[in-house]
Amino acid sequence: MLKEGKKYIWKDYQKEIADNHYYYARSCIRQNFFPGSEATFLRILKNELNKDIFDDPEHTTCTGIGYHSDIIPLETTMTVVARHFALMTAAGYKNLVPSCITSFGIYSEILETWHEFPETLEKTREHLFKATGREFNLPENVVHTSDIIFKFRDEIAARGRFRLIDQSTGQPLRIVEHIGCHYARMFPHKGIGGAEYPYVLAGMVESWGGEVIDYPERRHCCGFGFRQYLVQANRGYSLSCSRKKFESMEPYKPDMIITNCPGCPYFLDRWQYVIAEQEGKTYGENGQGIPVFTYEEVAGLVLGYDPWDLGLQVHQINVEPLLDKMGIPYNPDEKYAGPDGQDLGQPAELTCMHNL
Amino acid sequence: MKNIVVIGGGIAGMEASAFLAAKGYSVDLIEKNDTLGGRLANWDRLFPTMRRGSEVTEFLAEGVMQEAVKVHLSADIVRVERHHDTFLLVTTQGNELHCDAILLATGYDLFDARRKEEYGYGIYDNVITSADLEQIFSSGRDILTQKGKKPSRVGFVHCVGSRDEKAGHTYCSKVCCVTGVKQAIEVKQQIPDAEIFNFYMDLRMYGMHFEALYKKAQEDFNVQFVRGRLSEAAENLDGSLALKVEDTLAGRPMKINVDLLVLLVGCTPSEGTRKMASLLGLKLGFNGFFKTTDQHTMTNYSDIPGVFFAGTCIGPNTITNAITDARAAATAIDIYLSGNQLANRKMKPHEEFWLYPSH
Amino acid sequence: MKNFGYTRHTDRQIDFDATDKRLYQFVFDLEPSINLCIFCGTCAATCSAGHFTTLSFRRISLLLRRGMNDIVKKEIENCMLCGKCQLVCPKGVNTRNVILQIVKGIEKYEL
Predict the structure, then answer these.
(1) Is some CB atom of chain A closer than 8 A to the CB atom of B253?
(2) What is the tally of helices (H) and strands (E) in chain B?
(3) CA A307 to CA B155: how far, in whole Å?
(4) Which of A101, B31, C9, C91 to pair with A233, CA 20 to 30 A apart?
């Protein structure tokens, strides 16, 4: 593997990322899947980087799940997206930063459609005005939230207390990065590093001291696939896709997985449990799984935030082995205690995956 | 005596120079490298004969020498002036060459395989190009993986950078299909127990004897042809490559590991072509090669009287056709300089770009 | 009905003139790039869905122009619209829009 070759490609895929004044678009599902991630993003931007970011309570789903599940027609999605732009315009912002990869894909696809077919933009303006009386300007800059963390990765490293390094050996942690499909596959030039060798997460890992491992099925999708997962009978498909990736990455002995999509970390995390229960197979050390993180959680760890404030206790795969490697202190007794000390409840005993 | 400057000392430039000199013209041949032979110098054996490329180079050089062509090596053109029917060209060495006609034989460049990102050239150690493989053949070295192992399985990918909208080259490069067949045979000759797989979307064996070479590869060398275009190559832990391809005839996606992957890179317009176009104010065609005056009847002619084309600067071609084209260009220049009316025939203009969406 | 212990065989031949090409025409009119397909299979090779289902965009592209719409209808349900096929297609087929237009066409003709 020649790093120089990747650098050669990366230089062709740079993009404009606004420096400040962001309109934040939350994801529908991330607050349930990884409840600390979005809060951590806002905390980093406001407290560490002193950025102006507006978290609008009136914001809604972009309908991406409905659109990709063939329930909602594109025209409706366009109108909902137009409403987001109207809210952003009314709030006085021009830089849209969606937290969800599919939302980022939806915004990019719709802006591209409006650019190629201006009549669809006019139609959407009409639909939105009739339905809500709102008008809107197009955003000047649309980037994914992982792009923002990428942009400020060195500042985060500089302010950080921990690095992605195994304290016992001094070696960089071996890290699998997984990029959501809708980040760059539709529009490779809208992704940092392009679609084949995306640099957005790899850049963070590098800056924070870790080592990215490239394995044969790196480019394979996690298998979420919206309609596949939404129908219970089809979930085996999602499972099989993730399993293909685990089998491929296992020989490289990864210490952790970092992701930038709402669905991917969820499925890469939960399916390891299902595989353990179904087949008795585990992919991490000592009968554990490979811990899976969002990039905000990893940034939070680097910055020294309390792991339980980051919401790491709701991961299926125990994160403690990774925390130990990085030398991050944590109180095991507080793992399942809520902010006010209340008991959040313990997970059920696992049968095949070892408890700590 | 009338003077002619030929730019580019590859196959077409060498043969055209010799023919023009034989006709009694004073010929200056400008070559930017320190030897003549152009890209042929990088090719070991030739399809379909398996003769050495150097034999052809020697044949062409014999003509250049016999006819006392004035060869300027390591020379480039930095300035061109046009005065009525004549031209003044200034070389990097400061030579001022006055001439009555210019023949452009600026050839082609190879497609930069790094731009086909999904195949990992320049990233994965065991992905090489057809040009790299020719260098190994020429050097007499063994074909080995990066770790020094004799490959037990080798894959060839056809159409890398050709017929590819995403790579920006929509045309067929003409010579890569048969090169892939030739190289598959050569690898098999060197490593008889290696398995060879050629991944193709179409096999274009259009030239005389090409189909026979293909048959030879199948029958005598057991080369396996898989009808499917690679979607990606990825590196395994041991440095071998995991390929993803659809076996379209089985209708199933297929994964196959190879120790060495050879990308059959196509031809692109050369840097020299772009440079001369800019110095002379010549138009380039949609694909970036020189735009000829007429697609059927005037392929050696440019839109500037006295400026002519030969060889692969107007599109990918075989050695055979480049030589034929060079001789045709020499004749066209001779007819032009002799004032014969043949040179003044006109075709009703055709629109080259009707085939392309926009330009 | 009498049972003779044997039945008539279903004809495997594609009866080209008897097939329904409206769906293909519908898609072609809205997304002419469908006809740039040369069936090289790059799309199907990269397709994550194709590893665990019978989905192959190459096959859909072909079946569509053979009017085998019932199979097309069933097959496209496996598509996740992830965009990998569009990324790799050497001929620039807008695969994403082809799938979206097939869905519309199926609705339109109530296939």
Answers:
(1) no
(2) 7, 18
(3) 48
(4) A101
Q: Domain span at residue B54?
A: 3-107+270-355
Please tell me the least confidently modeled range out of A116-120, A158-162, B56-60, B294-298.
Answer: B294-298
> What is the secondary structure of A283-337 as a DSSP string?
-SGGG----EEEHHHHHHHHTT--TTTTTGGG-SS--HHHHHHHT----GGGTTB
Contacts of B230 in chain C (CB under 8 A): 42, 45
Q: What is the per-residue pLDDT across B103-112, written as a single tens digit (0 to 9) for each?
A: 999 999 999 9
What is the Cα Rg of chain A in Å? 20
ipTM, 2 dp: 0.88
CATH code of the domain containing B75: 3.50.50.60
Nearest to A241 among C48, C87, C96 (CB): C48
Strands B252-258 and B241-247: antiparallel
Question: Which residues, given as ranges, of chain A have pLDDT below 50?
Answer: none
Q: Backbone dihedral region of A223: left (phi > 0), alpha (psi from -120 to 50 degrees) or beta? A: left
Which tokens sit at A103?
């939302």
Q: B353 vs chain A: nearest CA distance in angstroms? A: 23
* Boundary residue ending a domain (B217, B242, B266): B266
The β-bridge relationship of strands A211-212 and A141-142 is: unpaired
- 8 Å CB contact between C23 and B212: no
For B335, phi and psi rounded to 5 degrees? -65, -40
Q: Respond yes or no on whether the N-terminal peptide bond of residue A307 is cis (omega within 30° of 0).
A: no
Min CA distance, B123 vs chain C (Å)?
A: 18
- Restricting to C residues 1-40, those with a Cβ less than 8 Å away from any Cβ of B are 38-40
Which chain A residue's Cα is nearest to C78?
Answer: A228
User: Quick check: C58 and B246 CB within 8 A?
Assistant: yes
Which residue type does B333 have? I
Q: How far is CA B86 from CA B102, B307, C20, in A?
A: 9, 10, 66
CATH of A152-334, one of 2.160.10.10, 3.40.50.11810, 3.40.50.300, 3.40.50.720: 3.40.50.11810
- Based on the structure, what is the number of domains in chain C? 1
- Rounded Cα distance between A171 and B81, Å, is 64
- Give the pLDDT confidence score for residue C36 in this predicted structure: 87
CA dihedral (C31, C35, C40, C42) in degrees, to 10, reads: 0
**Whole-angstrom Cα distance, residue A264 to residue A140?**
28
CB pairs under 8 A between A and C: 53
Return the closest-CA partner of residue B101 out of B296, B347, B273, B331.
Answer: B331
Cα within 13 Å of Cα(C8), Cβ side:
4
Query: Are B234 and A218 within 8 A, CB to CB?
Result: yes
Range 300-339 of B in CB contact (< 8 A) with A: none
* pLDDT of residue B209 exceeding 90: yes
Report the predicted TM-score, pTM, of the whole model to 2 decimal places.
Answer: 0.90
Q: Is B176 on the interface with C (CB under 8 A)?
A: no
Model confidence at B79, pLDDT cuts 50, 70, 90, reads very high
